[in-house]
């Protein structure tokens, strides 16, 4: 069995990273769609907002940002990484105290993340 050349190893690694990037973007897009539904539902139900409802939305916003932050930089999505890191840091400060105001701020972070996600996806497809 012949050893792989350095060039073959680099080509293989590049292929793996490209596939991982596409999977990351696809998953992030699917999660964004679900999150948008949660945000829309929260916005439409002004009368049913309570600390439990706010907490559930806040937690889902946090999990989305945290998940993106963990992988984005690895797959070359620096803009997504920076935005998700900012959203993650903000959400950590409010994890147990999601108010309408803090949720609206977090939703603004998410909207910027969605824009960056679509920009990254447009490069791929």
From TrEMBL:
PROSITE patterns: HPT. Residues 13-125 form the HPt domain. The modification Phosphohistidine is found at residue 66. It comes from the Bacteria. One of its GO terms (biological process) is phosphorelay signal transduction system. InterPro entries: HPT_dom_sf, Sig_transdc_His_kin_Hpt_dom. Keywords: Phosphoprotein. This is HPt domain-containing protein. It comes from Paenibacillus foliorum. The lineage of its organism: Bacteria, Bacillati, Bacillota, Bacilli, Bacillales.
């Amino acid at each position: 069995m012949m050893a792989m050349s350095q060039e073959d190893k680099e080509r293989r690694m590049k292929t793996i990273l490209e596939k991982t990037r596409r999977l990351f973007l696809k998953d992030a897009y699917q999660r964004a769609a679900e999150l948008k539904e949660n945000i829309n539902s929260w916005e439409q139900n002004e009368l049913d907002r309570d600390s439990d409802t706010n907490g559930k939305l806040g937690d889902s916003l946090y999990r989305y940002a945290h998940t993106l932050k963990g992988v984005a930089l690895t797959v070359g999505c620096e803009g997504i990484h920076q935005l998700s890191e900012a959203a993650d840091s903000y959400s950590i400060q409010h994890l147990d105290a999601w108010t309408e105001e803090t949720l609206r701020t977090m939703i603004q972070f998410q909207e910027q993340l969605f824009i960056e996600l679509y920009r990254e996806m447009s490069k791929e497809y």
